[in-house]
Amino acid sequence: MTMNFNELPEFTKECKRLAKKYKSLPNDLQEFRKVVSVAPLGNSKHFNIVTQSESVKIVKARFFCRYLKGSSLRIIYAYIERKKRIEFIEMYFKGNKENEDRERIKQYLKSFDI
């Protein structure tokens, strides 16, 4: 079964903004989708489960952007195993922001359809 992907509107906005700065971002995101399709909870120490319930796991991962030549971006996504779905919640530049938006994750979990 194939993985389905979805993005929160805030995530889409962040991506557009970051893609203006980092030209390889759209392709890097495609590459990232391939990786998480195979290993939804990640395949290395660069992936970390932030929160989990029985129906959803929120994962924070280092996002490798070729344009940045490093691991300065972070991506937060939800993995819904039962539905084989990944929903992108947030992407941010580590230099500008230390941690994920906990409030956004809480809102997402509240609206989550179980």
Short description:
This protein has 114 residues and is α+β, with helices and mostly antiparallel strands. The chain has one domain: 2-Layer Sandwich (YaeB-like fold), CATH 3.30.2310.
Oligomer: single chain
How many β-strands, per DSSP? 5
Order of secondary-structure elements: EHHEEEEH
Helix fraction? Answer: 25-40%
CATH fold field value: YaeB-like fold
Shape summary: globular
Q: What's the CATH H-level superfamily name?
A: RelE-like
| End-to-end C-alpha gap | 20 Å
Number of folding domains?
1
What is the second-level CATH architecture?
2-Layer Sandwich
Radius of gyration: 13 Å
Kindly estimate the percentage of residues that lie in beta strands according to DSSP: 25-35%
Give the count of helical stretches.
Answer: 3
pLDDT < 50 runs, ≥5 residues: none
Overview of the molecule:
This protein has 114 residues and is an alpha+beta fold. The chain has one domain (4-111): 2-Layer Sandwich (YaeB-like fold). 32% of the residues lie in helices and 34% in strands. It contains 3 helices and 5 strands; from the N terminus they run βααββββα. The chain has helices at 9-21, 25-38, 102-111; strands at residues 4-7, 47-52, 57-65, 70-80, 85-93. The chain has a 5-stranded mixed β-sheet with strand order 1-5-4-3-2. A hairpin with a 4-residue loop joins β3 and β4 (70-80). The longest helix has 14 residues, at 25-38. The radius of gyration is 13 Å and the shape is globular. The mean pLDDT is 89.
